[in-house]
Amino acid sequence: MSMTSTQPRFSLESAETVHANLSVAELIEHAIRKGEGMFAANGAFVSRTGKYTGRTPKDKHTVKEPSSESNVWWDNNAAISPEVYERLREKANRAMAGKELYIVDTYGGADPAHRISVRFVTEKAWHALFVKQLLIRPVEAVIEPEWTIVNQCTELCDPATDGTRSEAIIALNFAAKEVLIMGTQYAGEMKKSVFTILNYLLPLKGVLSMHCSANIGAEGDTALFFGLSGTGKTTLSADPDRRLIGDDEHGWTDTGVFNFEGGCYAKCIRLSEEGEPQIWNAIKFGSVLENVVLRSDRSPDYDDATITENTRVAYPVDYIDGAVLPSVGGHPKNIIFLTCDAFGVLPPISKLTPEQAMFQFLNGYTAKVAGTEAGVTEPQVTFSTCFGAPFLPLHPSVYANLLGKKIAEHGARVWLVNTGWTGGPYGVGHRMQLGHTRAIIRAALHGDLDHVEYTTDPVFGLSVPTSCPDVPTDVLMPRNTWADKAAYDAKAAELAKMFEENFRKFA
Distance between CA 346 and CA 149 in Å, rounded? Predict the structure, then answer.
């Protein structure tokens, strides 16, 4: 058994074989041999995630122990005792016996001053491939891991004896610097575990951690795109006219922003070469397609949602032409909050005051789109504070105060962009055209909206531009897109009331 050193709490000595830090080609060879997937015609590896085709946030738990107890926002983080965690860890240790296991050593964080080293131990070769492509690969031959994430995905929990909510568990232990995943094969749980760790560590030392994508323009201007899964972070930041820093998770320090990851995790449903050319071209050998249906000729059918709406592809960031390497940028000039408004009443773009920015950031309004979480089959209105509540170990005020401070210090402009419905709510209207959204964002980033007239939305008090290049004027004012104006007024008033009620808990 050839491997680098491991942390002692998870013993791998009983494993049949442990493969450490294999190459991409070797991991694909192992995954094919073990029947974990197949090649698509475009060269990508196609996998299935089984029962769970999205995250299962209700099964995410944090160990309540003295070193972190006073910091954790327990209203948002389900607690388990150290005793329950120890039993689960021992169960995972027993489950490793006789298995072929894979180790991948990675970094979380492109800024050496703020990164963490993480060792993944997986039973699936394709899970090892996934994290190798999604996290940051060390240039060193050997790194000493600070954190260990163990994924024994086929070992099911028993709520009656294990003290879990279901057969799945994602358990974070800040004292032991461990994460334990069992009972779910959805690979996104691994990457979000690293995000949650950094969301805990970084703000405590004054670095803002953010659920956002980031890119850089030709003039060196950095832009951030906040939003939950399904709002367009990956799609809109993959812009041929700008260079990608990262598509999902970043930190903001005193010197600028940095990507937490070394890859992208893009939604594939209804993907087209014309609509999203950079993502389309990134799907090749080494990329991992999740739950994508293949035609008889093994070409991906991106329109087929038979398995899930949440079809995904994982690939290294350097598969995107012109990506910024290392993945760091300066202080952002523009910040865009992306919301998928299922009510269809928010403008496609509005310019926010600092006070409105804090209001929208703390509310984090959007609609969870089908497939992003277990059990979500159609858009569901939700308020996810800081546009990432499932991944926040600390109280939202910590992140909001840091963001407000950064905006004030660096003069960033903040925009609210609705990528959701127009012409009516879900079931009546239709999704915003991607071409219109791209034109709106391009105008905001290029300064084209700095000198146009604005009008104040009478319901939400938002400043809405009355014109925008390449976008029909009627689209900019959502009420104009509704056939039934009275229905619009009622739905807008309903959402405004929901905003105010949700914000009371932060007042």
Answer: 40
Domain 17-205 falls in which CATH fold? Phosphoenolpyruvate Carboxykinase; domain 1 (3.40.449)
Domain with CATH 3.40.449.10 in the chain: 17-205
Query: Token match 């041929």: residue?
Result: 240
Active site residues: 55, 192, 211, 229, 233-234, 248, 312
Tens of pLDDT along 365-387? 998 765 555 665 566 788 999 99
Q: What is the CA radius of gyration of the chain?
A: 22
Q: At what angle do helices 354-363 and 485-503 cross, to 10 degrees?
A: 80
| Spatial CB neighbours of 452, under 8 Å, sequence gap ≥ 6 | 465, 466, 467, 468
Q: What digits encode the pLDDT tens for the residues 175-218?
A: 999 999 999 999 999 999 999 999 999 999 999 999 999 999 99
Overall residue count recorded for the chain in this entry: 507
Q: What residue spans in the chain does CATH classification 3.90.228.20 cover?
A: 208-262+326-506
In one-letter notation, the amino acid at residue 492 is A
Q: What pLDDT is stored for residue 9 in this prediction?
A: 77
* DSSP secondary structure letter of residue 57: G
> CATH assignment of 208-262+326-506?
3.90.228.20
Distance CA 8, CA 178 (A): 12
pLDDT over 90, % of the chain: 92
Answer yes or no: is pLDDT of 7 > 80: no
